[in-house]
Known about the structure:
By secondary structure, the protein is mostly helical. It has helices at residues 3-15, 30-41, 49-54, 59-62.
Amino acid sequence: MSKAYLADLALSYAATRPWLDEIVIGVTSAAELRELHGAITEPADVHGDPWTRLASHDLDLIDPRRWPR
């Protein structure tokens, strides 16, 4: 997956959550800002395949308190 695709998925996910009021992002150029703005104003389908492949119920993976130090 490309970096732009991952950013698009992440922002689309955040933009479609009704319990989120704001999203804070940082950019390094005007072009990057335009790209990220597009991801928010035209969200990708976040209910499909990419998220199901990333899902996990393994607490050792998803709970930072269980990560090795």
